[in-house]
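User: Hey, quick favor. My workstation is busy. Could you predict this chain's structure for me?
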Amino acid sequence: MRHNNSPEMTRRMAYRVVGSQALFTFVVAALWLLQDTQASFSALVGGACCIVPNFLYAFWLFRRIEARAVNKILLVFYGGEFAKLLLAGALVIIAIVALKVVLVPFFVGFIVAQLSVLVAPFLMK
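Assistant: No problem, here it is.
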Protein backbone atom coordinates (compact mmCIF):
# COMPACT_ATOMS: atom_id res chain seq x y z
CA MET A 1 0.00 0.00 0.00
CA ARG A 2 1.37 3.37 -1.00
CA HIS A 3 1.17 6.35 1.36
CA ASN A 4 0.22 9.77 0.09
CA ASN A 5 2.70 12.26 1.57
CA SER A 6 1.54 15.30 -0.35
CA PRO A 7 1.99 18.71 1.26
CA GLU A 8 -1.80 19.04 1.55
CA MET A 9 -2.10 15.74 3.39
CA THR A 10 0.74 16.71 5.72
CA ARG A 11 -0.94 20.05 6.38
CA ARG A 12 -4.24 18.36 7.20
CA MET A 13 -2.50 15.95 9.56
CA ALA A 14 -0.79 18.82 11.38
CA TYR A 15 -4.13 20.57 11.91
CA ARG A 16 -5.71 17.30 13.06
CA VAL A 17 -2.98 16.94 15.67
CA VAL A 18 -3.78 20.44 16.94
CA GLY A 19 -7.46 19.48 16.92
CA SER A 20 -6.71 16.39 19.00
CA GLN A 21 -4.85 18.60 21.47
CA ALA A 22 -8.00 20.70 21.78
CA LEU A 23 -10.15 17.61 22.25
CA PHE A 24 -7.93 16.22 25.00
CA THR A 25 -7.85 19.64 26.66
CA PHE A 26 -11.65 19.84 26.68
CA VAL A 27 -11.87 16.36 28.20
CA VAL A 28 -9.44 17.33 30.96
CA ALA A 29 -11.32 20.59 31.57
CA ALA A 30 -14.61 18.68 31.77
CA LEU A 31 -13.12 16.36 34.39
CA TRP A 32 -11.85 19.33 36.43
CA LEU A 33 -15.32 20.84 36.18
CA LEU A 34 -16.40 18.10 38.57
CA GLN A 35 -14.23 19.83 41.18
CA ASP A 36 -14.98 23.50 40.40
CA THR A 37 -15.20 26.01 37.59
CA GLN A 38 -11.89 27.74 38.35
CA ALA A 39 -10.04 24.43 38.08
CA SER A 40 -11.78 23.71 34.77
CA PHE A 41 -10.95 27.19 33.47
CA SER A 42 -7.33 26.71 34.54
CA ALA A 43 -7.11 23.41 32.65
CA LEU A 44 -8.53 25.10 29.54
CA VAL A 45 -6.03 27.94 29.80
CA GLY A 46 -3.17 25.47 30.32
CA GLY A 47 -4.17 23.55 27.22
CA ALA A 48 -4.56 26.77 25.26
CA CYS A 49 -1.00 27.77 26.20
CA CYS A 50 0.10 24.69 24.27
CA ILE A 51 -2.50 24.66 21.49
CA VAL A 52 -2.27 28.30 20.36
CA PRO A 53 1.50 28.25 19.69
CA ASN A 54 1.21 24.87 17.94
CA PHE A 55 -1.61 26.09 15.70
CA LEU A 56 0.25 29.30 14.84
CA TYR A 57 3.43 27.34 14.17
CA ALA A 58 1.66 24.95 11.80
CA PHE A 59 -0.04 27.85 10.03
CA TRP A 60 3.23 29.79 9.71
CA LEU A 61 5.26 26.75 8.69
CA PHE A 62 2.94 25.64 5.89
CA ARG A 63 2.75 29.14 4.49
CA ARG A 64 6.54 29.30 4.24
CA ILE A 65 7.38 25.72 3.30
CA GLU A 66 7.05 26.49 -0.40
CA ALA A 67 10.81 26.99 -0.47
CA ARG A 68 12.52 23.96 -1.94
CA ALA A 69 16.05 24.59 -0.65
CA VAL A 70 16.86 22.37 2.31
CA ASN A 71 18.66 25.15 4.16
CA LYS A 72 15.62 27.43 3.89
CA ILE A 73 13.27 24.68 5.06
CA LEU A 74 15.49 23.98 8.09
CA LEU A 75 15.71 27.69 8.89
CA VAL A 76 11.92 28.04 8.70
CA PHE A 77 11.40 24.90 10.77
CA TYR A 78 13.84 25.74 13.56
CA GLY A 79 12.95 29.44 13.58
CA GLY A 80 9.28 28.55 13.89
CA GLU A 81 9.95 26.03 16.64
CA PHE A 82 11.94 28.62 18.59
CA ALA A 83 9.15 31.19 18.20
CA LYS A 84 6.59 28.56 19.27
CA LEU A 85 8.53 27.82 22.45
CA LEU A 86 8.90 31.53 23.26
CA LEU A 87 5.17 32.10 22.72
CA ALA A 88 4.22 29.10 24.86
CA GLY A 89 6.48 30.35 27.66
CA ALA A 90 5.06 33.86 27.44
CA LEU A 91 1.49 32.53 27.49
CA VAL A 92 2.24 30.41 30.57
CA ILE A 93 3.69 33.41 32.41
CA ILE A 94 0.78 35.65 31.40
CA ALA A 95 -1.76 33.01 32.42
CA ILE A 96 -0.19 32.48 35.83
CA VAL A 97 0.32 36.17 36.59
CA ALA A 98 -2.70 37.81 34.98
CA LEU A 99 -5.38 35.13 35.09
CA LYS A 100 -4.57 33.73 38.54
CA VAL A 101 -5.07 30.15 37.38
CA VAL A 102 -5.10 27.17 39.74
CA LEU A 103 -1.67 25.68 39.12
CA VAL A 104 -2.33 21.93 39.27
CA PRO A 105 -5.22 21.90 36.74
CA PHE A 106 -3.37 24.47 34.63
CA PHE A 107 -0.27 22.30 34.30
CA VAL A 108 -2.33 19.12 33.87
CA GLY A 109 -4.11 20.80 30.95
CA PHE A 110 -0.81 21.98 29.48
CA ILE A 111 0.90 18.59 29.85
CA VAL A 112 -2.06 16.62 28.48
CA ALA A 113 -2.18 18.93 25.45
CA GLN A 114 1.56 18.40 24.93
CA LEU A 115 1.37 14.63 25.32
CA SER A 116 -1.70 14.25 23.11
CA VAL A 117 0.64 14.79 20.14
CA LEU A 118 1.97 11.30 20.87
CA VAL A 119 -1.52 9.76 20.79
CA ALA A 120 -2.96 11.75 17.87
CA PRO A 121 -1.42 9.66 15.04
CA PHE A 122 -3.14 6.54 16.41
CA LEU A 123 -6.52 8.29 16.36
CA MET A 124 -6.23 9.29 12.70
CA LYS A 125 -6.71 7.15 9.64
